[in-house]
């Protein structure tokens, strides 16, 4: 594994350079002045501001060592989903000594009124929502998010291990459905990998980047980078921000992949080879603009970039699928 590069005194301008590099980055001390980071007791700080609303969280026995995942079968889990009022969950978390508890992706504005306003995010638009991840020494399996991400450690310590998107073939990803907690995860436990069963994971580890973050630090996770998150203390708070700068289009890459799974994956090998070259040329622009040599009026769908053109292409595709 390699260490993730650390940046100090990050500004909005320097953050644009970080994003342009397309690599993960530790943003040292970025939120060290946040009230929750400076609080003597972060758990009490949250408890005082928690809305009395029910929340769903994960509860796991000590023998799984915080690695929340599938159970004995793909259709089962090794943890139990539970529900309780948010203040009650926080009280239970403080008192817990053996079991793993994890509350994931809680909306700051909905569950902690005033938190977002008191903990500003200077590197992003205020319209990007803050989400809270609260728990003890639990582990989030290797997964990826369809967005860019800034994760800010606000209480406790966390260890992040990241893998570039190109390592997908070495991560032994589980099914798209069912999943343990809503996203596709690796079948390999990072903290106890079975390399006899998953030998290519050794190559993924060689490409991995890791960092230990303390309260006040943040981590920039580029688009679609796979990551494993390990909380190291009895009380941990992470605040994260997801955003997608891509323009709104009449469809998603996920839609395209699902369609390709239906229409391309089952073709004979020589036909898949041909379509791989076509996708590289026309979709991923491996050779530059595929219509550059054509007059503008003759480019057809190669020059269809306006919302109206894209909408018509989508309508034609939907009509073909329905037919």
Give the topology, please.
Blueprint: E1 2-3, E2 6-8, H1 12-21, E3 25-28, H2 35-38, H3 42-49, E4 54-60, E5 80-85, H4 86-95, E6 100-107, H5 108-111, H6 115-118, E7 131-135, E8 139-143, E9 148-155, E10 158-163, H7 201-207, E11 209-213, E12 218-221, E13 226-231, E14 236-243, H8 253-263, H9 269-283, H10 307-322
Parallel strand pairs: 1-11, 2-3
Antiparallel strand pairs: 3-12, 4-5, 4-6, 6-7, 7-14, 8-13, 9-12, 9-14, 10-11, 10-13
Helix pairs in contact: 3-4
Summarize the structure in words.
This protein has 323 residues and is an alpha+beta fold. It folds into 2 domains: 2-243, Cupin (Jelly Rolls); 253-322, no CATH class. It has helices at residues 12-21, 35-38, 42-49, 86-95, 108-111, 115-118, 201-207, 253-263, 269-283, 307-322; strands at 2-3, 6-8, 25-28, 54-60, 80-85, 100-107, 131-135, 139-143, 148-155, 158-163, 209-213, 218-221, 226-231, 236-243. It has a 9-stranded mixed beta sheet. The protein has a 5-stranded mixed beta sheet with strand order 1-11-10-13-8, with helices on one face. The longest helix is centred in the last third of the chain and has 16 residues, at 307-322. It is globular, with a radius of gyration of 22 Å. It starts with a strand and ends with a helix. The mean pLDDT is 95.
How do you describe this structure in short?
Helix content is about 30%, strand content about 25%. The chain has about 325 residues and is α+β, with helices and mostly antiparallel strands.
